[in-house]
Amino acid sequence: MKTTLHYAIMGLPLLMVGDNLLTMAFSPQQRRVTNVMRTTHRIPGRLPLSEHHHDSSRLSMSSDEESPPSSANTELEGRLERTDLKGATRMLKEGNWDLTRETYRKIFYAVEERTRQENIDASQVNMRALEQEQLQRLMEYPLESPARMEMTDLYQTLQTKNELQVFGACGNSPIGPNKHLPAEGSKIVTPNLLETITGLSMVALTPQPTNSLLLAGVGLALLEGLTSVVTGIDINVLIIATLLFALLDQVLVSGAVFETAIKIVQPNVNQKILRHEAGHFLCAYLLGCPVEGCVLSSWVALKDSRFGGRQNAVSAGTSFFDPELSAQVNGKQPLSRSSIDRYSIIVMGGIAAEASYFGRADGGAGDEMALVQFLSNINPRGGGALTWTPESIKNQARWGALQAVLLLRQYQPSYDALVDALERGGELGDCIYAIE
After folding, report:
1. Class of 14-55+125-139+182-209+267-435 in CATH
2. Counting Cβ atoms within 10 Å, is residue 329 exposed (0-12), middle (13-18) or buried (19+)?
3. Staple partner for 141: which of 154, 331, 360, 410, CB 3.0–4.6 Å?
4. Residue 178 has what pLDDT?
5. pLDDT recorded at residue 333
6. Domain extents for the chain?
7. 81: which residues sit within 8 A by CB, 6+ positions away?
8. What is the mean pLDDT of each run of 10 residues along the chain (436 residues)?
9. Within 13 Å and on the Cβ side, how many CA atoms surround 184?
C-alpha cells in the first residue's frame, strides 16, 4: 500500500498522503465525540501528559438563539454552489447558524471544489509524483494558495462558532486555552519507551516490505505458461503483450488496473489503505490543519488534479494544509519546532493507525522517507530549525509515532466514525460530520 504526503507547492504545507506525491519532500510506498479515551503515561523529563477536556455540547445553535431568515440560508447555499468560500465565510461569521448534516456536506463540497478548481500547477503537485529535481527545490519557499487560505479561514470560522469542536482540539486554536498533545515533556523517545507507552514494538511501527509484486509476477508467469501450452501461442508473444499492457496501464491510468488486481487478490489491502488514510486525516484535523480531500483509489484520483490527475494519480491520499508551516517555508517567519512536530505527527499518523489496528504497518515507507527528506533539507536559520542528524531524525519519527498512536486512541470514537464514513464512500463533509 502506498501513502503519500501531498504538499501544495503553492502553500507548501498542503500535506497529502497518497501515492506518487512528493511536494515538500516525499515519495510514498503507500457524532460527535461523547466519550473520549484518555492516556496517563508520562515521558520522563519534565511534564506529565496533559488532560484534554473536550466540550461535547451540541454543535448546532441553542434554541434561544435566532436563526437566520430563509433568504439568508438561500444566499449561503448560493455562495456555496458558486464555491465562493470567502463570501460564505463572511456570512457564517455574521450570523448564528443551525448547521444540518446537509449543510456540512454543502460547505465542504465547496471546499473540495474550490481547491480542485485552482489552476495553479504548483498547487497540484502530488508528493509521490515529484521528480528528484523538484525535491531539491523543496525549500525554495513557493507562493501560498489563495484557495487554501480561504479554506483555512472557513475552518477557523466554524471552529470559532463552535461548529467544529474536534478540529484543532490538540493543536493551534484561534479561541480558548492552549491545547496540548497527549504526551508532554521530553522529546527523547527510545524504542523501549515507545513500546512501554504504546504497547507497539519498533517492528510493528516499521513499514514492512510486501511480496505483492513477487506473488503477482509468479502468478502472471504461471498464467502465461499455461496459456501458451493450452493455446499454442508463443510464450514470448505473451510476455511482450503483458509488458505492453503494463506499460499502457501505467501511462494511461497510473497503474490503476494493476492496483485493482492486487486488491482483488488481497482484499485486506482495502482496509489497510482506508485505516492508514484515516490516521493521517484525523491527526491533521486534531492538530488544526484543514483537510481538503481524501481518496482511496487510483480510479478516484485520476479524476482529481489535486491527487495527480491522469498523469500522476496516487493510489491513496489525504490532502491537508498547514498555514503556519506554509508561512514559515515561504520565509515569512522562522521555521518553528511546533510546525516540525505537527508535520511529524501527521506523517506518522498512517503508520500509527495501521499498526494499532493490524498489529503492524505494511504501508508507510514513503511517509518515513518524507519525514527524513523534510528534516534533512531544513536549513538551520533560527527558531526550531536545528541541524538534524540521522539519530535525531529517528528519534523525531519515534516521537511522532508515539503522539499519533496516543491521539488516535484518545479520539477513538472519532476515528471509528471517520473510518465508517470513508468506508461508505462519504465525501469530505460526511467525514467531518462523522468526526464531530
Report:
1. mainly alpha
2. buried
3. 331
4. 52
5. 79
6. 14-55+125-139+182-209+267-435
7. 106, 110
8. 37 39 32 33 39 39 52 90 95 89 94 78 45 41 74 95 93 56 90 95 85 65 79 82 75 68 75 94 96 82 65 73 86 85 95 94 87 83 67 96 97 98 94 96
9. 12
C-alpha cell at 398: 519515534
